[in-house]
């Protein structure tokens, strides 16, 4: 398993909607709206890096999101 | 309780020691070394947002090897 934190900038006004949709995904372990340079932080767990790619492209980035930055857990 | 995520840039090579130090701080729930624009991400939980400044200045930023922090405060209050 690999863990990653996805820092998300949502489309303005869609923060709560994006959060609710994220929380329904089984890969999401924790997701919160935050103040600051990003709008949402989500902690995810997936099998391997190719799952991470599929998950981000198919499930996360097609939500109402402007930008994501994914920080993969190193250890 | 207020949750915040602290994104940390550390001195090169100090990452693991910092994570160990962070995990000993009361209020730090998780701390991971990560790849990308930051080196470490810590999740903290404190009773009140007014305590956040002191918490970070007294407990987090003095940890040896931490160069820069960026704190994202959760907008949800439990």
Summarize the structure.
The complex is a heterodimer of chains A (75) and B (78). Chain A is an alpha+beta fold. In chain A, 28% of the residues lie in helices and 43% in strands.
What is the CATH architecture annotation of chain A? 2-Layer Sandwich
Profile the largest sheet of chain B.
Answer: 4 strands, antiparallel
Order of helices and strands of chain B: EHEEHE
Which percent bin holds the helix content of chain A? 25-40%
What is the arithmetic mean of pLDDT of chain B?
A: 94
Number of domains of chain A: 1
Alpha carbon gyration radius of chain B:
12 Å
Instruction: Note the total helix count of chain B.
Output: 2
The proportion of strand residues of chain A reads 35-45%
Give unreliable regions of chain B as ranges: none
Sheet/helix structural class of chain A: alpha+beta
Can you identify the CATH superfamily of chain B? Lrp/AsnC effector binding domain/regulation of amino acid metabolism (RAM) domain
The CATH architecture of chain B: 2-Layer Sandwich
Q: What share of the residues of chain B does DSSP label as strand, in percent?
A: 35-45%
Tally of discrete structural domains of chain B: 1
Shape of chain A: globular
* Oligomeric category: heterodimer
Shape of chain B: globular
Helicity level of chain B: 10-25%
Euclidean distance between termini CA atoms of chain B: 5 Å
